[in-house]
């Protein structure tokens, strides 16, 4: 039985990271590469981080995608320089992500024949890899360019997959800060993960590979969510943060990361889960009425 290595983001050592053999989905042929830590299945435990946009819901040709963008406070707004010591745990995580990106690129060069079907040069692979950390951007003329106005962001995916009966189901466990369980459904995700929330997540990474590009998908496995504080009028009128990955495309087409969905579902079914890191203490609180706040499009 596989064992998961759940490591605090502040304690990560890039030299202990390795990559498994490439896997090919039985259903759609998509490729993925598992990420290991000390030879075990790797899961990263994030510190308490702010999520200004809450859960982002995007409709695609392949279904609905649910993602979270962590605001990496104290790190380089343009996502280029390393974080200083005063950035704390978030800075340590940011630096690890930058190191991991370099290690993935170097490994992709060495194993390009296996991963991509032919040898590829490093500069080509750098251009085709989706960065693990993204700066905020704004539109200038016809282009979207980094603006340095907000901290860089780190993207994670909320795993929502069809169960054996074809019903969309949230494939993760969540509790509040008192360790009371939170029942998650696709319908209540925007209520459970609202704007300006704070949370601790444990995420499971894997590399996706296609002819067009490659990158790392971070799937949320466990969540501990802080109660939402009262929102002030000033917060309601704050400008929206826009990450580089949220730039609107001229034509919406299925991406390599979206094609990776079925491969992830297979891995969830085949890989035994680690015991949840937090135990429920009492029954879940009653659900609150769902409330939506209209915002401008990103």
From TrEMBL:
Residues 272-286 have a biased composition (Low complexity). Residues 238-298 are annotated as: Disordered. Residues 288-298 have a biased composition (Basic residues). Residues 255-267 have a biased composition (Acidic residues). This is Uncharacterized protein. It comes from viral metagenome.
């Amino acid at each position: 039985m596989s064992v998961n290595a759940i490591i605090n983001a502040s304690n990560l050592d890039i030299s202990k990271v390795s990559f498994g053999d490439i896997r090919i989905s039985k259903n759609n042929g998509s490729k993925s590469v598992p990420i290991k830590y000390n030879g075990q299945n790797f899961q990263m435990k994030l510190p308490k981080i702010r999520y200004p946009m809450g859960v982002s819901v995007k409709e695609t040709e392949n279904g609905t995608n649910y993602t979270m963008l962590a605001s990496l406070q104290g790190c380089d707004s343009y996502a280029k320089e390393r974080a200083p010591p005063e950035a704390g745990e978030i800075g340590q995580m940011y630096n690890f992500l930058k190191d991991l990106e370099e290690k993935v690129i170097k490994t992709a060069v060495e194993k390009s024949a296996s991963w991509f079907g032919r040898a590829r040069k490093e500069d080509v692979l750098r251009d085709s890899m989706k960065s693990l950390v993204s700066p905020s951007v704004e539109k200038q003329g016809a282009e979207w360019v980094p603006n340095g106005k907000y901290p860089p962001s780190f993207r994670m995916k909320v795993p929502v997959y069809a169960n054996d009966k074809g019903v969309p189901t949230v494939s993760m466990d969540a509790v509040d800060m008192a360790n009371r369980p939170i029942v998650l459904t696709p319908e209540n995700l925007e209520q459970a993960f609202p704007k300006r929330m704070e949370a601790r997540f444990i995420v499971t990474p894997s590399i996706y590979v296609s002819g067009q590009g490659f990158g790392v998908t971070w799937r949320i496995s466990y969540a501990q969510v802080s109660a939402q504080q009262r929102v002030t009028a000033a917060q309601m009128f704050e400008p929206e943060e826009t990450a580089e990955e949220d730039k609107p495309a001229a034509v919406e087409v299925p991406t390599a990361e979206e094609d990776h969905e079925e491969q992830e579902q297979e891995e969830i079914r085949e890989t035994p889960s680690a015991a949840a890191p937090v135990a429920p203490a009492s029954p879940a609180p009653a659900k609150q009425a769902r409330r939506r706040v209209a915002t401008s499009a990103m």
